[in-house]
Amino acid sequence: MARRGLLIILSSPSGAGKSTLARRLMGWDATLSFSVSATTRAPRPGEIDGTDYHFVTEPAFRKLVDDRGMLEHARVFDNYYGSPKAPVQRAIEAGRDVLFDVDWQGAQQIANSDLQDAVLSIFILPPSITELHRRLVERGQDAPDTINRRMQKSWDEISHWDSYDYVLVNDDLDVTEAQLRTIISAERLRRAQQPDLLDHVRTLQRQFEER
Amino acid sequence: MARRGLLIILSSPSGAGKSTLARRLMGWDATLSFSVSATTRAPRPGEIDGTDYHFVTEPAFRKLVDDRGMLEHARVFDNYYGSPKAPVQRAIEAGRDVLFDVDWQGAQQIANSDLQDAVLSIFILPPSITELHRRLVERGQDAPDTINRRMQKSWDEISHWDSYDYVLVNDDLDVTEAQLRTIISAERLRRAQQPDLLDHVRTLQRQFEER
């Protein structure tokens, strides 16, 4: 019996290094799959359908939600975003862990879904707000108002740190990546994640009885 | 605020490598402490009081049990064995994890004690019964009857593998040691094991408000 994969949720305020860490984890373990979000917003130049997002129409999005085909979804301004359930279910049934880059609201919806038994949630904290602010400013030519709104959103995200299983402070990307690997590797050693053990114990029992 | 240490329970049938692994873990991390059992049996040649066992009288042992001073205890033939609670409590309150080498009955008692929140239980399975039998035979000049009784006890122990958090098959000591390190390191990254995070988040909040 193949093990069922885990739903590994990574949340953090933007600028705390989450995307870089997710990319590094995908490079570390080729069996990890990444949950590509569906969205109703138009693709930006360079974005690839199926890789960056699944670009769908609003009726298609709504139908997925109505058919309980979304693990989590939210409306942000005029657009919808969500995590389609079908590819996640296929991956975990094939024994592959799935990585999610979602905010605290998405994390809560996934943690309350019918796949909640397989959820592992990790929050990444920034070393400081100064650093977070610096990264937001560096990122683009956003107006101070936009930066302020993002900082407010970041704080909102941080304030939910205490509903996650694991929490890491991303002082150093290499250290944090190693910690993420450690967490994922350990979780795979849980009894519940190793259905093959049952076969091993049955073999031991047969050997014991035939001895 | 210092984190409270974990109670790390290692169980396995004898001959599966548990003692070697426990010793290696103690060498890996000097902050780990080992729960030395108390016993009413007489010391054997070479055994050191306080290191191998705490050798106590039967009245002293009974008093500890009556005063709820034992995390777990059992009678084996005419002798009593148990894990005194006081040193464990001192260690975990100082933020040190404590390693226990106990059987499934001891593990269950500790898992039902008032320290249950801090318990992490790991079962080590042998690669095969043949191997387990070979190690028991190699170990000494025991009579076939004794070996048979030990094998029966080993199977009894194995049959409780499925009440542990983590289960490892000890095919290779180095691999199993690395897995144990991974599990302990990951468990220390759980939010509940990092009370200092609260200070960090408070600092982030102050920085956010003063920005």
TrEMBL record, chains A, B:
Subcellular location: Cytoplasm
Keyword Kinase in annotation: yes
Guanylate kinase-like domain boundaries: 5-185
Catalytic activity: GMP + ATP = GDP + ADP
Domain of life according to the entry: Bacteria
Alphabetically ordered keywords of this record: ATP-binding, Cytoplasm, Kinase, Nucleotide-binding, Transferase
Annotated Pfam families: Guanylate_kin (PF00625)
Stored InterPro entries: GK/Ca_channel_bsu (IPR008145), Guanylate_kin-like_dom (IPR008144), Guanylate_kinase (IPR017665), Guanylate_kinase_CS (IPR020590), P-loop_NTPase (IPR027417)
Tagged with keyword Transferase: yes
Primary enzyme class: transferase
Role noted for this protein: Essential for recycling GMP and indirectly, cGMP.
Family per similarity comment: Belongs to the guanylate kinase family.
HAMAP family registered for this protein in UniProt: Guanylate_kinase (MF_00328)
NCBIfam families: guanyl_kin (TIGR03263)
Name by which UniProt lists this protein: Guanylate kinase
Species whose genome carries this gene: Loktanella atrilutea
